[in-house]
Design a protein that fits this description.
Layout lengths: L1 H18 L2 E8 L9 E5 L10 E5 L2 E8 L9 E5 L6 E2 L1 H5 E5 L8 E6 L4 E11 L6 E8 L2 E9 L1 E2 L3 E2 L4 E9 L4 E7 L15 E6 L4
Parallel strand pairs: 1-2, 6-13, 9-12
Antiparallel strand pairs: 1-16, 3-4, 4-8, 5-7, 8-15, 9-14, 9-16, 10-11, 10-15
């Protein structure tokens, strides 16, 4: 009986560790409902003071996320969009909202700073889809413990009748030494196509790789 109880406790501990080995963040307008299994990064559209440092418990630590733009901030460029409940998506809540930068106002990139991430290697997965008309391409610069690298020319997907599996995603790795990790997203400047003007990111997931 004691062995059975010990095995149960160990099993629960292992399950708890697995549950804490991932951080899933969905961007949303303040108070918006995010997809099950995700925690929200909330902000208000065109409102710089709302893009605050927001903290989450993950990987046995407090991990803080903050979105910033170069100074002086041009508030019209800072977007947090809710495309509404009538979009036909799978799952609806994950692709309904997105954070972005409107390059019609400024070509400034948005920087996502991740603080408090414990040392280790993490798998990164992010979603980039607009249920309406925004598309275009962007670059993602990763500044982490290994230095700096850039993923170029990612094409944002769009459309209301869309499945999550078909949405644009970025898959890469991030290495932390405990210091801030900075991810910089820069939209390709649009010409005459307004539908290519805004960078879009719906959500991201960080999954800790097992130590080798």
């Amino acid at each position: 009986m004691k062995k059975a109880i010990l095995s149960l406790i160990l099993g629960m501990s292992i399950g708890l560790g697995a549950a804490q080995a991932q951080l899933k963040i969905a961007f949303a307008t303040t108070g918006g409902k995010v997809a099950p299994g995700y925690e929200a990064y909330y902000a208000a559209d065109k409102t710089p003071d709302s893009f605050t440092a927001q903290s989450y418990t993950a990987f046995g630590a407090k991990v803080t996320i903050k979105a910033t733009w170069p100074e002086p901030v041009q508030f019209e460029a800072l977007r947090m969009i809710d495309r509404g409940p009538d979009v036909i998506l799978d799952p609806q809540d994950l692709l309904r909202f997105w954070i972005g930068t409107d390059t019609r106002v400024a070509f400034d990139p948005v920087t996502l700073t991740i603080s408090g991430l414990p040392a280790g290697v993490y798998d990164w997965l992010s979603y980039h889809h607009d249920p309406k008309d925004q598309t275009g391409t962007f670059d993602m610069a990763i500044n982490d413990a290994t230095g700096s690298k850039t993923i170029t020319g990612t094409d944002i997907s769009n459309g209301s009748k869309f499945k999550l599996e078909d949405a644009t995603k970025i898959k890469t790795t991030i290495t932390s030494d405990g210091k801030d990790v900075k991810l910089v997203f820069k939209q390709t400047p649009y010409s005459d196509a307004i539908s290519e003007a805004i960078f879009v990111m719906n959500a991201f997931e960080l999954t800790q790789q097992a130590a080798k």
